[in-house]
Amino acid sequence: MPSNLHAVAANFNIHGDYFSAEPHGAGHINDTYAVTFNQSGRPVRYIFQRVNRHVFKNTSALMRNISRVCRHMRARLIEDGLPDASRRALTIVPTTSGADWFVDDTQNYWRCFLFVEGARAHEIIESPSQAFQVAATFGNFTKLLEDIPSGRLEEVIPDFHNTRKRFENFQKSLAADIHNRAKDAKAEIDFLHAHENDCSVVVDAIARGEIPERVTHNDTKLNNILIDDTTKQGLCVIDLDTSMPGSALYDFGDMVRTATSPTLEDEVNLSLVVARPEYFNALATGFLSSLGTTLNKTEKELLPFSGKLITLEVGMRFLTDYLDGDVYFKTSRTRHNLDRCRNQFALVASIEKQFDAMNSFVATL
Ligand code: ADP
Ligand code: GN1
Ligand code: MG
To answer: How far is the CA of 312 from the centre of ligand 1 (A)?
Structure first.
């Protein structure tokens, strides 16, 4: 727990007395804490986050995007007559001087959100109906943000899903091999080389104008959405750091990556890692329930491919980080990134086995 959390919290416009704090969630990037305040006898929780400076260099742009997304989501939800807007869209708690974030004396950036109660982020998907909810809710995120005012969102991390560039970065890390780790990952390196051509498919289709730019989330892993504990419905899209211009395929692909396998992404028993068809079908049905009339023919046709692509891309990023010495993703054991990479490539292989069936199913929708 950071020793200055209590002092940091004093800079936010929160009533009552600081009571307690604990680490919260299982994200790979930021440091997240649930902080409880005593508000005249009632405990009220807030989410505090220390933003990862290494990953996010332009925090102002990031927070400007998040603020615009939160405000627009809230306005649209209220317009649509939905109750509980503060549980369905993140709410930024401003600092005492009215800013969206606070810089501490070690130059760390902090922000605070209302804690969404009565809902949870899940690490492993529980049922096809939950998969439907996840995909419908992430799809609705793009739908609601179609008319966000004040122009394009800022590109917080350029080329975030440019799989071709990710491949080139992998090649550079492999050539440098600064920790002499490539020898541990021969099979994974070969697997990636055999899939090199896949890396250009979506990038090229975007360049040809076949896939339109949309406001997308770009990190739609299962634990970046809160599911209502009572209604079991998809409630609130969180982790808005990478909300920016992108392709709907990135969002669908990351859901296939994180919501079709019965395992965590670092499961080492690879025989358990499979993309289950009933979960894929539920994701596709859910996504198209929100975006069916929005997506064009190419986007729809590439939905199954996007699952394979984003799983390959994230596996490649884990491998690259392993070669680089674990500098990007949080790790909790040696070879953690290599284990994650192996898991993701096993999932790619499982998707490939079922690719025809996935394409046939999407064609029926
Ligand atoms: P990271 O970028 O590190 O993944 P997230 O923004 O996803 O950070 O937050 C980490 C975890 O904290 C989430 O998976 C979720 O469990 C929890 N969380 C984040 N924001 C909220 C919120 N406003 N209310 C409740 N839980 C939250
Ligand atoms: C990171 O922040 P988190 O844990 O939701 C990463 C994603 C990866 C994911 C892999 C900003 O997501 O791109 O797909 O880990 N986020 C960033 O689990 O790089
Ligand atoms: Mg997250």
So the answer is: 24
